[in-house]
Amino acid sequence: MAEKAILSGNEAIARGAFEAGVQLAAAYPGTPSTEILENVAQYDEIYSEWSPNEKVALEVGVGSAIAGARTLVAMKHVGVNVAADALFTLSYTGIKGGLVLVTADDPAMHSSQNEQDNRNYGKFAKIPVIEPADSQEAKEFIALALELSENFDTPVLFRTTTRISHSKSLVSLAGRQLHGQPQLEKDMPKYTMLPAFGRLKHPVVEERLQKLRAYAETSPCNRVELNDRQIGVVCSGIVYQYVKEALPSASVLKIGLSYPLPTQMIRDFAAQVEKLYVIEELDPFMEEQIRLLGVEVAHGKDLFPICGEFSPQLIREKVLGTATAVNTAADGLPARPPAFCPGCSHRGIFTILKKLKVFVSGDIGCYTLGALPPIQSLHACVCMGASIGMAHGMAHVLPDSDDLSQKTVAVIGDSTFFHSGMTGLLNAVYNRSTSVIMILDNRTTGMTGGQENPGTGKTIKGDDTIAADIPAMARAFGVKEIVSLDPYNLQEVEEVLRAELAKPELSVIVVEAPCVLRYRVSKPPMQVDPEKCTGCKRCLQVSCNALGLVEEGEKSYVQIDQNMCVGCTVCAQVCKFEAIS
Amino acid sequence: MKTVNILLSGVGGQGVLLASQILTRVAMAADLDVKQSEVHGMSQRGGSVTSHVRFGDKVYAPTIDPGEADFVLGFERLEALRNAHYVAPGGVILYNTMRINPSTVASGVATYPEGIEERIAAFADRVYAVDGLGLAEKAGNVRAANTVMVGAISRFLPIDENLWAAKIREILPAKLVDLNLKAFEFGQQAVAV
C-alpha cells in the first residue's frame, strides 16, 4: 500500500513538484501561497529560492524552463499581476522543460486586498488553467500540468483557492521521477520575441489553443459523475466538494481543466440532465463560456454571489431552497483583530504618526495593521510598493502648507521595498519629490510568517548570502542624506519626523529594528505601579495585547502581562504619571 | 461511520492548530477519511483563529457550516461564544474558561463581555466548561492548555483510546511529551460523560 500523509494543498503541490522531477522552484511569499515554496525548500533535490518579487520569480522560472528543466513558480493571485508581463509573452515563446505557475486565489479575502479571479488570466494569456479539488489532486495535477506544458509547449496556470491551499486531506505518496538533463539550445524565432518573430508565434498560440480544446475532451482532469438526472452541476475546485456535500444525489461534471473547457463534454452532460447549474466562486468564468456555446444554463450567477466564498449550506439553500435553521451568532462581542506584536518596532512609529495627524501612504506588510483601531493611522494601501509612488504623487499636487494633515509620509517595509518599492524611490529622487519616505527595515518578510528576503543575509534554505544594504541603495539612487532613528524612542521619532516634514525636499528615513517575533528580541517585562496609575488609558492607545485594564470597584489601573511583554518601553513613554517602569 | 465535525476556536498563539493536528492524525490512524481547514496568515498576531476538523468514511467539504458542528471546542471563553452557533442540534460545546483580552479590549475601545458562560450554555444542552489554564499549570506548563482540551474532547470520540497517546508522542518534541500526556489526562478527567 502506498504511504499516506495528510497534507495541505500547498504541501501537496510541493510534493507533486518533487515527485514530478521539478528541478527549480521560485516564489515570492504571499498568503495563501507561501507554504508551497517553504515545503519545496525541504527537498534538497530541487533548487528553490525566494525571489524579490513575482515577476523575477517567473523570469527565473522562464530561464530554467528554456534550459529544459521542469519548473514550478508560485505566488498569490495579485502576484500574477506583477508577473503578468513575463507571463503573456511566455505564452508566445513556450517552454522546453515544463513550467507550472501556481496562482493561489483568495475568495473572501482572508488575507488579501482584492478577490480577483485568476482563471481569467488563462483566457487572457491563452494558456491552460488547471484546478485541483483536494490535496491528492493538487499533487497529481502538478505532474499532469507539467506534462501538458511539455506536450503543448505552453506555460500552465495552476489555480488554487485558500480552501484548497490551506485545507488538509489524505494524499498517497510516490517517489521522484527525473525528466532529462537541462541543455541550452539556441532557437531565436522561438525565444526571442522581436516583432517579426512574435508575429510568427501568435498564430501558433491560437493553433495551440485549438489543440488544447480537443485535448480537454479527453483530459483526465475532467470527469462526469452521473447520478440523479434532475439536477446537473458543472463545478471545479473546492466548489466540487461543497456540491458533493450539499447535493449528494445530483449529477456532476467536475472540471479540473477550466480553460479551455471541454465543450462537447459539456453539451453531452447538459443533454443528460434536466436542469443545468454552473456553480463557481467569484466570476462567471465557466458560465459565460458555457452560455456562449448555446447550452441552456438553468442557474448560475443569477442565484450565486460573485463576492466571497461558498459553502455547502449556501448551495443547499440556493439550489434546493431549504434554509438550514441555524442559531444566530452571539452579537455585541468585541472583535479580536490581529495587532502589532508586543515589542513590535512599528508601534512607536505609528503612535507618533497618529499624533502628528499626517496622511500615511501605506504599503503591504505587518505595518498595514496600523490601519486598525485604536491606531487607525494608515490612510491608503493599494498594492505592493505603492506607498512611495502615491506619496510622491500627493506631494506634487498638494499646495505648500505647514498643516501636517496635508502632508504625506510613505511607510514601507524592507521586503516590500525590495519587491517593488525600489523603483518608486528611484522615481522620487529622479522627479524631485518632496515627500517623506520611511523604510521600516525589520529584516524579514513578517506578515507571511517571517521569510528570508534579500536583506536578511540568508537564502530560503538558510544558507548565508549577501545582505542588501538599503541606505547604500538609496545613496546610489541619489538620495543625499539618509536619516536613521530609534523606533523605540518616541521623542526621537517625533523630532525627526517633524524636522523631515518641514524640509522642502525628499526625505528618506531608514528605521533598522529587527522583528521581535522572528528574532525573539526580548528584554525584562515592564511593570505598572498601581498606586501611580490613574487608569487614564493613555497607554492603551499604543494597542499592545500585553496591556489590560483592571477594574476593582471605583479604582481602575493597567496591568501588564508578564509573559507577553518584551520590555520595549513604548507604553511607559506615553504614560504621564511615570507609572510604568 | 457518520462524519464527525469539530470546530476549534481560540486565539492566535494558543495552539489551536497543534490541537487540530493531533485530532487529524488520530483520525487518520483510525483509518478514517479526514479533512481539516484553517485560515492562517494573521494567527500569530493575537487574532481570532478557527480550525475545522472533519472525519468519517468519506469527507467532501473541508469546512463546517454554522449549526453543523457535533463539537465546538473553544480554547478561550469569548472565542467559544463567538463560534457557539456552529454547534449542531444535540451537539456538545467544550471550552476552556480562560480569558485573553482582545486588542480592542486591551486598548479600551471595547469591554470584555460579562456573563459569557451563561450565554454559551444557551446554545447547547451539553456544555462543558474546563479550567484549561489551571489544569495545564498543574501538568507543568500553561501552554499545554490546548492538550487539556484535546483530552476533554477525546472522551466523546469513537476512537481507540491508545491512539491518542501514540500520536501525542509522534507529533510533539520528546521533551514536551510527558507534560502533554499529563495535560491530556487531566482534560479527560475534567469532563464527566
Can you describe what's shown?
The complex is a heterodimer of chains A (581) and B (193). Chain A is an alpha/beta fold. Chain A has helices at residues 9-19, 35-40, 54-66, 77-93, 119-125, 135-152, 162-165, 188-191, 195-216, 238-246, 263-272, 285-292, 312-320, 346-356, 386-397, 414-430, 470-477, 490-502, 516-519, 570-574; strands at 4-8, 24-27, 47-50, 71-76, 99-105, 129-130, 156-161, 167-172, 223-225, 228-236, 250-255, 257-259, 275-278, 359-361, 408-413, 436-441, 482-484, 507-512, 547-552, 555-560. Chain A has four domains: 4-216, Rossmann fold (3-Layer(aba) Sandwich); 223-320, 3-Layer(aba) Sandwich (Rossmann fold), CATH 3.40.50.920; 346-519, 3-Layer(aba) Sandwich (Rossmann fold), CATH 3.40.50.970; 522-581, Alpha-Beta Plaits. Chain A is built from 20 helices and 20 strands. Chain A is globular and about 80 Å long. Chain B is globular, with a radius of gyration of 16 Å. Chain B has 193 residues and is of the alpha/beta class. Chain B has a single domain (4-190), classed as Pyruvate-ferredoxin oxidoreductase, PFOR, domain III (Pyruvate-ferredoxin Oxidoreductase, domain 3), CATH 3.40.920. Chain B has a six-stranded mixed sheet. At the A-B interface, β8, α10 and β19 of A face α1, β2, α2 and α3 of B.
